[in-house]
Write the structure tokens for this entry.
Amino acid sequence: MEHLVDRESAQAETADGVAGSEQVFSTAAELFRLLSTPIRLRIISALCQGEKNVSQLLGEIDTTQPNMSQHLSTLYRAGVLGRRRDATQIYYRIGSERAATLCRAV
């Protein structure tokens, strides 16, 4: 999956016209697909208040650890989330302006 944040800048460079419109629709469809899972919206909502580790997220969202990790990984690879390691803990945060905007809307 191509990084969604990179696509934002690529679409801005696309010339006006059909090709540009198709890219916009394609990017929007991919973002909607990415966010079509309620747990991913819950994760984004939980991280709107600030950075959290997996244990903290599991305390707020009713799911299993493997399922949580899978969704976090998907959102990270898409550029929606950022992360950092502190010893054995991985902390996640909102990683794109698009996701921050979504936080304000949800």
